[in-house]
Amino acid sequence: MHIDSIATLLDPVKTAGAIALKEQSQMVFSDRGFKPDSSIITKVDPMVESFLVAEIESQFPRANILAEEKVRRFDTQKPYTFALDPIDGTDGFSQGMAGWCISLALLDKNLLPIAGIIFAPKLDMLLFADVNRPATLNGKAVQFGEQSDPLSGKSNIMVPSSVHRQLDMSHFPGKIRSIGSAALHLAGPVIYPGVFAGIDGGKGFIWDVAAAHAIVSSVGFDFELLSGKKVSYDSMVKGSPVGELILSGPAGHIVELRACLKKR
Prior knowledge:
The protein is α+β, with helices and mostly antiparallel strands. The chain is 28% helix and 24% strand. Helix 1 (10-26) runs antiparallel to helix 2 (44-59). The mean pLDDT is 92.
């Protein structure tokens, strides 16, 4: 089996997003529940996951599917792996907020993310990087601002809400923004020209980060651990989290950002 495009999954992802958006509009705060790890879950998460898993299995029957809400066996003999987060940013989703998305990635046999879809219905935003193609935003080529601007008080970074517990950011001169979704934070430098870099807190799983990895890499930006090492999915396909903070953005920005961050 050879996969040279996942464009046929765009319509199912849009449909799933419309379903989630409608369900969100009818939810109340008490509809949300808690998993054993205290993370939030709603009835929409497994609903969207089941719908999209069925679509993926129908179109790509020989690929692994790793998704958040149901444990599935990873088969090392299968040449491709899909990583799906049906609702990335469930906490905000459960409270009626806009910063959530469907995150879907394709990884090759070497566990390198090679395609990604991030759909944020309430933000009317569809970010897509197909196999061997640069990312588009709502069907149009991504337009970047001046990416060589040095780190300054005008620089924006997108971060998880708990970043203050993990990093001393007192030497960062710019503005710190959080929207509630790991995928949207990490893809921020591709989505918004004014975003200097994106950060994920290191507790994310393969379905949280792989789509953003594919999208960021497709436009030549860096996606690496705070230590400078590459992000590896070898243990993540077995259910382990990233384990270390991830930085995303233009290479020069990552160098500057790393120099002013200190782990707590």
